[in-house]
Amino acid sequence: xxxxxxxxxxxxxxxxxxxxxxxxxxxxxxxxxxxxxxxxxxxxxxxxxxxxxxxxxxxxxxxxxxxxxxxxxxxxxxxxxxxxxxxxxxxxxxxxxxxxxxxxxxxxxxxxxxxxxxxxxxxxxxxxxxxxxxxxxxxxxxxxxxxxxxxxxxxxxxxxxxxxxxxxxxxxxxxxxxxxxxxxxxxxxxxxxxxxxxxxxxxxxxxxxxxxxxxxxxxxxxxxxxxxxxxxxxxxxxxxxxxxxxxxxxxxxxxxxxxxxxxxxxxxxxxxxxxxxxxxxxxxxxxxxxxxxxxxxxxxxxxxxxxxxxxxxxxxxxxxxxxxxxxxxxxxxx
Length: 334
What we know:
Blueprint: H1 2-32, E1 64-68, H2 81-93, E2 98-100, H3 121-132, H4 139-154, H5 159-176, E3 187-192, H6 195-210, E4 214-219, H7 227-231, E5 235-239, H8 244-252, H9 264-270, E6 274-278, E7 296-297, E8 300-301, H10 302-333
Parallel strand pairs: 1-2, 1-3, 3-4, 4-5, 5-6
Antiparallel strand pairs: 7-8
Helix pairs in contact: 1-4, 2-10, 4-5, 5-6
């Protein structure tokens, strides 16, 4: 048993080191064109998205909300059951918003891990099968790989390339779900865990491409002091008091330390463009996590509480967008 455990530890250490070394190369390879052409968003005719990928609204939506999953994601088209339950409830809570859920945020190309020109696609295909079978062994490997992509997105050297790539992927999926860039309809990027960093990385480029207001709502979001924090229309960061991953991010990224008053994060806090909100005794994932439908607090499940708080945050963002638009119109008329 000890020998087997030793092999597992050694394999884990090797995967950790390889993942760390290789993390930036997918971003650089995409930028260099080694991983396929840089097609313009919407240039190819997209197939109609599945019914679950866009909320059915009877009229033009108030805004488009794009879900960026946590580091357990392997493909934008394949969500975990807990995420499916969460998004179903969120659609019911926000019927006047269009919800886009088919973005894979952990590659600048947006390609699922088990497709494309990936050297380790055989490993991710195995992870895909084992993930569906609820096998425990490969999820930590998947999480490690995606975690390093989050760190790439947070890196000042590679982050701008990563954010630019993801903004194109997001725009492509928005167009496929019926978004018209010329209309300037507001966009809200909703990031879970590492999806929070991906959201703030992509926000400035998505705003530049569409001319629309792009804001971020994150829950349990792992985020650095990225330029997107100050350039997003609004950033609301929801977290649980028992979310130690969220607390760790506060120390892991020096730009979030109070002593660096000029950082993007602290400037956004002073300008009240960034709001952090404790939503209760919720942990990061699993039992007691944001999407746990069984754990309860104050007569509501954690899942219900998360949906309610996100709905409040989304509507708060829209109030702010409407106020800024009114100020702009008033300034023009004067």
